[in-house]
Write a structure and sequence with these properties.
6-stranded antiparallel β-sheet, single chain, SH3 type barrels, 3-stranded antiparallel β-sheet, alpha+beta, 2 domains
């Protein structure tokens, strides 16, 4: 990872110093590493068989101090210190039973009618957002390239104001922060992916939602859908003002021997920075890699670094989160 744009430990211990994660290793206090390219160190803080999760505290790198709720079955995506504690036979059996209850895969797709209805809402929202941007003095044309390194504070301010006028700013703050840290932790982001699929913006195949309150109160399906439409309408209107041909890039590095659960998401991640994509493509411990580029299509954009404050904090990936449908390579 010599050329990586991410933090990493060049002196980390070898994989041989750890053992593959199993349910019996899920004991609070045990130290482990995520089987990502840089072996992010964590320790277990809670084990919650009743809800199907365990919680880890991130011990290093950009997310140090964060806590993630991880599905129990994903313990195989971690490696544990060999001298760590192990659960009793009774506790291990409880965890295995919890995994068998909770490890359910679902597919969600809204269909053609839902997609047509949402397309109409998005078209109207983009017009509304374009008029709003003009009213606050946003330029009719702009060059996004100078903002790739650190974002565009004016765009962030406009976006915050736009969502505040719709009483959606708090939802946006929590969702964006959760996505940037770990979109697979807990059910917050998964709830939005579910609604994206339900309203016809793609197909979701993933684990089933486990939090019974995922769609309660301020996080109802209707409010999530309102947020999706407001956000996408604004982003379309903003990026429609970008000058010239804008490229987005995606780099992938594949490791050997990791647990790759197959699924399908309505969204795919890319970057406006080729350097960021190359950091994934060039990872030293990848056994294969690919590097792609496509012209940016405003109608596919869901979330970008330009308007999203959370994407210009601890991570600076110049990220583009796009609808998966309509892509050629990604």
């Amino acid at each position: 990872m010599t050329d990586s744009v991410y933090q990493y430990d060049p002196d980390r211990a070898p994989d041989s110093a750890f053992v593959p994660g199993e349910p019996r290793h899920l004991v609070a206090g045990n130290r482990a590493r995520l089987l990502d390219m840089r072996r992010t160190p964590v320790h277990v803080t809670r084990v919650l068989p009743e809800s199907g999760f365990f919680e880890v505290h991130i011990d290093a790198f950009e997310d140090a101090g964060a806590r993630w709720l991880i599905p129990l079955e994903e313990v195989t995506s971690y490696q544990f210190e060999a001298n760590g504690a192990t659960a009793s036979q009774e506790a291990e059996r409880e965890l295995e039973l919890a995994i068998s209850r909770h490890d359910v895969t679902v597919t969600v797709a809204g269909g053609a009618m839902a997609r047509r209805q949402t397309a109409g809402r998005l078209e109207a929202e983009a017009v509304r957002a374009a008029n709003w941007l003009t009213s606050v003095g946003a330029p009719e044309r702009f060059d996004p390239l100078p903002f790739v390194a650190n974002g565009w504070p004016s765009a962030t301010t406009w976006f915050d104001s736009y969502l505040s006028s719709r009483d959606l700013a708090r939802m946006e703050e929590r969702l964006a922060s959760a996505y940037v840290s770990n979109p697979g932790a807990g059910d917050l982001v998964l709830g939005h992916l579910t609604v994206l699929a339900e309203i016809g913006l793609g197909t979701l195949t993933s684990r089933a939602i486990r939090d019974p309150d995922c769609f309660s109160g301020q996080w109802s399906r209707q409010r999530r859908a309102d947020h999706i439409v407001a956000r996408m309408g604004f982003v379309r209107a903003l990026w429609a003002r970008a000058d010239g041909d804008i490229w987005v890039y995606r780099g992938a590095g594949v490791q050997h021997g990791t647990d790759r659960r197959r699924g399908q998401s309505p969204l795919v991640s890319a970057s406006f920075s080729r350097k960021v994509a190359e950091s994934h493509f060039n990872a030293s411990n990848a056994v294969a890699g690919a590097l792609y580029r496509q012209r940016m299509q405003p109608d596919r954009l869901f979330m970008t670094f330009l308007e999203t404050k959370a994407m210009n904090g601890i991570y600076k990936e110049a990220e583009a989160l796009m609808l998966a449908d309509g892509g050629v390579f990604f």
